[in-house]
Amino acid sequence: MKDDYSDFAAMRADLMRDFNPANAQERLLVLEVASAWRRLVQARGREELFFDLQRHSLAIRDGKPPADYQKDGVEVAMWLDKPNRSYDQILRAIRDAEMAFDRSIRRIEAMTGKRYGRERLAQRDAQSNELNAAKINAVRARSAATVPRSRTRAAGARVVEMPVTNSA
Which residue from 117, 92, 113, 104 is spatially nearest to 12, judged by alpha carbons? Predict the structure, then answer.
């Protein structure tokens, strides 16, 4: 069973890029996803190793070459022949790793979903504010561009001048 840290580190980096955590809590959840994935891969590797060892021990017991036991489904026959408590433990480890992985994925998706929702809402608010500001500026520009009605006399109108008096 191969447990290569460089593969884990590369997968963790991919998850960091995919989820793009914005804070320490999101980074922690991404690390939790990566760790759960690693546990699942390790449990599946133990399952594979278990069956390889079972096939090998059956071949030795029967005096046959191990290649005779490399057929699909032979592990089911082995299990029916002699159930093994070790395999139950492996299945439990797989189940626990799958549940931890699913739980951590749901948690990071919920958290990033809330963050993206807040970001979208803030973006919509900013766009709405920009649109409102543009409308206000347009109204102001129209008001400034229109010439106020002056008190000019129309053709043929009579202008009456009022005497100016100095009262002192």
Answer: 104
Report the amino acid identity of residue 123.
Q
At 56-90, the pLDDT tens digits run: 877 888 888 877 777 666 666 666 666 677 778 88
pTM attached to this predicted model: 0.58
Structure tokens at 132: 């409102």
Q: Is the dihedral of CA 105, 111, 112, 116 positive or negative?
A: positive
SS3 of the chain: CCCCHHHHHHHHHHHHHHHCCCCHHHHHHHHHHHHHHHHHHHHHHHHHHHHHHHHHHHHHHHCCCHHHHCCCCHHHHHHHHCCCHHHHHHHHHHHHHHHHHHHHHHHHHHHHHHHHHHHHHHHHHHHHHHHHHHHHHHHHHHHHHCCCCCCCCCCCCCCCCCCCCCCC
